[in-house]
Amino acid sequence: MQRVCFLLKVRADRLDEYRERHAAVWPEMLQALSDTGWHNYSLFLREDGLLVGYVETEDFTAARAAMEATGINARWQAEMAPFFESLDGARPDEAMTPLTEVFHLA
């Protein structure tokens, strides 16, 4: 199982709404994530907007591609894009650059 961690930055003026949106993720989006191999997917949000994402998957590249092939993902990404800083025209899921793991306690 591949463990993936990534960072994004939520706009300070959108933190409360971002939390609200993630307290009620669309059931179709949850199902799509599960169906495309996203396991133990978590998002952690710091008060300054730093977002830390963590997911376990067999193949992150394949899991991202499978999500991209769903219609629900395109709609979710379009709705979430305005919440983030520094996407440089990318969708939020395209900006999820994995961090390099330097230690893991097995």
UniProtKB/TrEMBL annotation:
InterPro entries: Dimeric_a/b-barrel (IPR011008), Rham/fucose_mutarotase (IPR008000)
Protein EC: 5.1.3.32
Coiled-coil spans in chain: none
GO MF: L-rhamnose mutarotase activity
Biological-process GO terms, alphabetical: rhamnose catabolic process
Keywords of this entry: Isomerase
PANTHER family named in the record: L-RHAMNOSE MUTAROTASE
Protein's name according to its UniProt entry: L-rhamnose mutarotase
Originating species: Streptomyces fagopyri
